[in-house]
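INFO worker-7 received task bundle
INFO bundle size: 2
INFO processing item 0
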Amino acid sequence: MAISASFIKLLEKVEPGLREVLIALLEEMEKRRIETVTKEEFNELKAIVKELAEAQKRTEERIKELAEAQKRTEEMVKELAEAQKRTEEMVKELAEAQKRTEERISKVEERVTKLETAVHELAEAQKRTEERIKELAEAQKRTEEMVKELAEAQKRTEERISKVEERVTKLETAVHELAEAQKRTEEELRMLIGEHRKTREILGNLQHTVGYVLEDRAIFGLPPLLKKDFGIEIIEPLRREYIEISPGKYIEINIIGKGRMNGKEVWIIGECKTQIKKKDVDNFLKNLSIIERVLRGKKIPIVVTYQTSPPLRNYIKEKGLKLYFSYQFPL
């Protein structure tokens, strides 16, 4: 049986394995066709020879059988033709399937390439992960060692805390005792403060008394000294006084009076302190500048005290003040 060129082209498009199966199928079909025809002819000749020997009748029967066999052969050839047609259609379908298979294989190859890339990346990531796990394992080992050390430190800390608690208990007892003693001390201190307040009141009164005594001595003892030192004649007796510097506001002046010096009236303004200090001098100078707005005219500022240091004496002199001591006044 001859094979068409178009069928051969179709076979070339089929996969090698499938092509071999199709070719083997065609060869088998051709072989059976040839064998079937050859065998029938041989049997026919054999039958003819035998029938010639036996009888004309059997020859006619054999011819009849051959006619029937021919009919079956024709039917078989027709079936083979239809099978050939179905085979060609199958081959065509197989070719199309092969084409689709190749396309799918192409896509599969692309996916495989991508998968290989992904697998490579996963392998690298796995390698990095294993390295990281190794590092974490080492870190875990160090952590466990630290935890062990911390546990030991905690044990030592608890022992120290136990000792501290014992000390705290003792301290609490001592603090309680101290609190009781403090309570008693505060009570005694309260009583002492009361006594001290009374003492300060007494001392304050004494200080004022001493100050007033010094002022009184200065008031009676200064006129002759002022006459001697400045040539001042007292025309308004010296006294203690309050000077109103603004409505309802006063400044206390220890010694104040008027005199005449070189034919002109002058104010005698004095500060009297039992123990004068630098701040007392500065306050006196400040008061002098304030009362300047109220008491017009020349002023003779003086300072009276029992005793003061040499540096303060120089400071008083530098500020233009006249210094007098208590021992300069008669008793």
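INFO item 0 finished
INFO processing item 1
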Amino acid sequence: MSVVLGQVAALTRRDLTIELGYHFQLVMRFIGIVISVVTFFFLGRLVGDAEALAGYEGGYFEFALIGLVVMNFSVVSVTAFGRSIQAAQSTGTFEILLSSPASLPTLMAGTLVVPLLFASVEAAIYLAFGIALVGFSVPLQSLLLAGVLLLLTLGTFAAIGILSAAMIILTKRGDPFSGLVLQVSNLLAGAIFPVTLLPDAMQALSRLVPAFYGLRGTREVLLAGGGLPDVAVDLVALVLFNLVMFPAALLALSRAIRLARVTGTLGNR
């Protein structure tokens, strides 16, 4: 166990050193957060007390703020693996990395630590702006349940990211579908507007999107004062999605690596 933790720590130090070296990029990310918050704050002023938000405390800004935080984590989960593989392919170190003593799950976990750390900092900034602008408050007793919902939601997105990484290994053409998955999730899961505004057919489709249950459950806990019985369906749905998607994605990744080794293209750019 200590060996695995040491390997994850080494990968984390590497990625953190790289990320902190790009100061301008960090500034731009902060500016992007400010622009997003200000945009949705004034959209909230425009929307006012919409009927579709009657079940939640606060207004549209608080509703959208939860969506921004959850989808920000989701973007990281979907794209982190693919970006790491592309970077290793471009520098010709991917095959060397796979030949290291670290197992594939360890490499994946280490790759995800720094992106999730930055996403956590960004989430804290989002919430700080929410507190400053509208007095947004998060019930402390609800944080644990919301955290479980968030982790399960991220698990489903991470599975998609692993599958995307498998496609990158085989095609060498970049991320094939992560952008589309995120756009569909934003639309059908209700990231920035209630799903009830969609046509009935699209509302039915939204039940097939894991993020729908994550966002609905998180908002129920943080904005409607719900407890475990209120989000039990969402928790069960997310667990089932993870049980199906994660093993399938890991199998696809291991087979992609095996095929690339057989064809001699694993180290190709």
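INFO item 1 finished
INFO post-check item 1: The mean pLDDT is 82.
INFO post-check item 1: DSSP finds ten helices and no strands in the chain.
INFO worker-7 idle
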